[in-house]
């Protein structure tokens, strides 16, 4: 679909980033000499690897390379999240300590909203009849109180296999203190039932809190066979295409890991992909010396927002996956499936360009979370979809061109008008244009809600931040959303529609290791912690070395999980080998989140190490694209509807690669991967690297 630079080069190896969305699969290729190519292909939800393989072949041809010149494929996948959302995971069973069969049902004894009488508790991923108890007991200090009943383990496993279960989760009480029983049970099951996949809790989360550990283990077991099968098909397809290169997968924390790690521990990859856009946004901000950002990503199915404050990504150690709005809030729990894994702090709503607009039973307009996706798609695609979507509304209003994805997808204005008139305008007695404006207003309010979740609800004023608009539809809505939040600036990267795939090429490899270390802070012994950290660091370095990371590119970070005595939640703070310094660091972190502190006793809960393998040849956002020669004359003029007050306005349309350095709105700027809308009263300025900074009146 074209290069982002015009450099003549001799390739020294190419890296490909791939991000699967609900509507399009995005690809970026960096050839090792500074040239960057990008391409969009329609996603294939029934077999996601087909779109990836099609796109990889096409982008290699665009770059005039051979498959053998590809040295690395970096991948973000929605397979894990879609598996949970659609409840299509593997039949899963749980083997646990006698008396703890209902931990998943009990959860945290909370509801997301205290007064919501319509709330329904998420159905556990493991049916109660498939949760088996066995006799064993380990005390809180790790001593064995009741030996493991091995016959009971085999009997439970046989019952599950007879019931058609082929993925097991094993989670015993206090196994994080003494893993002997869990290890033995996993070994027995593997020996007697080799066809079964076994996930033990100590392999994914060796720390306290029974519900969190059980839930995380069950999610891993539920998703594992599905993600394994997908990665197997993808790697086979890449090999058949002549690509003999490692496949790395983006995890929920915005970092990378080998496909082997993703197969074994998919719970770390449930939010694979969306975090990569945040990583890319932070790197772009650093390149432009903009430290405070809200990264807003709107694709075909969902929209998400994340905070970058003072140049640092906001991360959390646990989150819940759920339909509707999904946030890793520290205050709202029990709305979904808990996973205690490191993740970028992202709020997500089911409002994307493909989200279906409809009138609910109460006579109100709703948008999402159901999406038309890539198949059958919005009504304007003309490939089977008949219900109006956000894309149909934007097309009817004049914001979108007649073709998307570089001309690969033709759009029909009349089909969009027909769907909107039938399902929305006629029921409300509106014109199709005003109904389409209503769709935009609703979806913009939904997305502003996600941004408030990571700013206002965190005690941060969004007016002090720049909104970074990425995704195929982010730049179409960003200016209106910024105005809703009184944010003064919108930054649109050079290639916003494929920016998440580009962000993957800016990531590093990471692995996480944790060890329980329960002690009062007053009794904390730095010498003992140093010994434990040394073991964890050795494990981290060995794991990264197994993923072909050179020793001189490995770095490790030490953290300590702490809490006030009697509290359930803990906070991670950087490790300092001094009790007073740790005390001050924890109090500061606690006050920053909760706006108050306590004089209660502080406890150390666990020690953790993050091993990071730096990637050579990461994409440079300052040099990824040079702005071409601008033209003051627009490519065309078309009528765009800006609402009932302003009506239709003749709006100049520019091509992104040839637009002038400064544009006064209204204007529409079209690119191969996305469209940028500059509303009336706003100005857009292009920098030397083709990024657009929109300033709102």
From TrEMBL:
Q: What sequence ranges are listed for the domain Acetophenone carboxylase-like C-terminal? A: 529-690
Domain Hydantoinase/oxoprolinase N-terminal residues, every copy: 15-192
Pfam families for the chain: Hydant_A_C (PF19278), Hydant_A_N (PF05378), Hydantoinase_A (PF01968)
Domain Hydantoinase A/oxoprolinase intervals: 213-510
SUPFAM superfamilies the record matches:
Actin-like ATPase domain
Q: Which domain of life is it from?
A: Bacteria
Report the PANTHER family cross-referenced here: 5-OXOPROLINASE RELATED, HYPOTHETICAL 5-OXOPROLINASE (EUROFUNG)-RELATED
Record-given protein name: Hydantoinase/oxoprolinase family protein
Native species: Xanthobacter aminoxidans
